[in-house]
Fold this sequence. Notes:
With 344 residues, the chain is α+β, with helices and mostly antiparallel strands. It contains eleven helices and 13 strands. The strands form four sheets. A five-stranded antiparallel β-sheet has the order 8-7-6-5-9. A four-stranded antiparallel β-sheet has the order 11-12-10-13. Strand 7 (182-189) and strand 8 form a beta hairpin. Helix 1 (4-15) packs across helix 3 (34-46) and helix 4 packs parallel to helix 6. The chain is elongated and about 95 Å long.
Amino acid sequence: xxxxxxxxxxxxxxxxxxxxxxxxxxxxxxxxxxxxxxxxxxxxxxxxxxxxxxxxxxxxxxxxxxxxxxxxxxxxxxxxxxxxxxxxxxxxxxxxxxxxxxxxxxxxxxxxxxxxxxxxxxxxxxxxxxxxxxxxxxxxxxxxxxxxxxxxxxxxxxxxxxxxxxxxxxxxxxxxxxxxxxxxxxxxxxxxxxxxxxxxxxxxxxxxxxxxxxxxxxxxxxxxxxxxxxxxxxxxxxxxxxxxxxxxxxxxxxxxxxxxxxxxxxxxxxxxxxxxxxxxxxxxxxxxxxxxxxxxxxxxxxxxxxxxxxxxxxxxxxxxxxxxxxxxxxxxxxxxxxxxxxxx
Length: 344
């Protein structure tokens, strides 16, 4: 790579990967000597790129964070991914970044090679995004919550619940989760001594942040699973805890992953199932193809009682017809036997 400018660009591209590069490794990749690498590193530093060097056998070069944002070098796939992400952000659920996203996208598309510009434009022209109906969240709010989670600082904020009641909360933020067009904060509520999920659009932060905290293990073993299970329970009008007389593994295979299945011994389990009506919930339980026990809610118990009576009445006539048919067949066989005996 005889051209110095081209070599510097290639070196910068290598240094932008999140790893340490030794001098010999860079020299081998660029086909030059380690002395040339040292000279090129100095040139990059002179251009404002903060290249850090660590001495020793385990040391190497790494591009650090500078006072200003340096130009980034993207390969083809990275450039397409960034362009698609900016288009999505321009119409997403985070408010305040729409115009910024479009400006950044315009700059990127201006320098994209034609082959990549055609890919990005084709994807944009032949995909349709349904407009969101959920609330938007300020980008600054999400950034502040994420920063507190990163720095392990408690948050103090005013919160309005789904009933419209306001309260002052103090919580240890752990993760932001985006689900169903909304942003949720998973945090340990110190006032209620337990995990809680807060909708970010209902949060109004107070300053300054509180003291630092020690991170806790994720609820349910995973933040996303915890939010998904909470949403499943929140959206249903009727929720029932049902004991199913079948192994937990078999029942879990027939249900969405967001529904909790708690084993009760080897041959039974308990599930928390929900639906918008007792009728639909009863149908779902029947599709489990296993015996089950229900103790509530009362509407579901009553509906199951009505269904059991309806199904029993549905087969009552069939059972009588089957009995009559069997009697007729027996009578016919007896008559045939007597006729045969007479002929003999």
